[in-house]
Structures are given as structure tokens and as C-alpha cells.
Design goal:
Number of helices: 5
Number of strands: 2
Number of domains: 3
Strand content: under 5%
Order of helices and strands: HHHHHEE
Oligomer: single chain
Radius of gyration: 19 Å
Structural class: mainly alpha
Length: 141
Amino acid sequence: QELAIVYKELAAPGGVNVTVQRSPEDSYWSNVWLVEPFTTVGWNGRTADQALSLVYLSDAPWNESYYKNAELDTLINTARGIKDQEERTEAYGRIEQILIDDVPRIVTSFKPVFVGMTNKVGGVAAHPSNWLVLRNAWLNQ
């Protein structure tokens, strides 16, 4: 609720009137989310492709803003298959610029992802989901 109050206060000087209404979680997902025109939710980390595909594709199941952009759809679907890192970075850069220009949603924060362990463990890196992924882990004794 604090985030909504901050948004309300920041929007007021621009002439945007915001009413903050907190909904119980047991009814939020069926009565508010994807129903009301402006809501806020927290998201767990995802890979770039997962985040873009779930939220920004025109037919995405969790497209909360009902944003539709055929060019963006094509870029997202193409970027996920690009193997060359330089080309992939360029494609995601174009995606990023469209999202900056169009502002289909307001992303208020990013949760940092950390992983720490003894130097006897290798092959483990931070994952965007904040899950501990041990697929490539090894022990050095």
C-alpha cells in the first residue's frame, strides 16, 4: 500500500487523481487483477524472455496493461532464438527502447539477486528468479 500512496502523491502535481484501494488477496486475483484498469502487483524474477513473453506480448496471459504492439511481438519472438550474443543484445536493446518510448507499464523497482557460498563450491551463479540453481555446481575439497 505504501507504493500506491507514493504514486498517488507523485501523480497529484500532474493533475492525476489516484484513489488507493487495497483488496484482500483472496479476491484480488479474481476480482481486481486483469479486471480493473490500473493495478499493481509484485513480480518474482524471471529471465528476460519469460518476463517479456508473459507480460508484453499482445496475447500474453498476464498482459495487465492490455498493451499491443506487433513490432514488439515480432522482436520478442525473434530475440529468443538468436544465438549470436551481439545480435541478441542488439535485439533486446530495440525491445527495451520500445518499452521506454511506449511505457506500457510502470516498473517501480527491481529486487537484487545475490548468491553467496564458501570458495569450496563452484559453478553456481545468481539466477534472475532468485532460486538457487545447482545444475552446474561442483565441490572442491
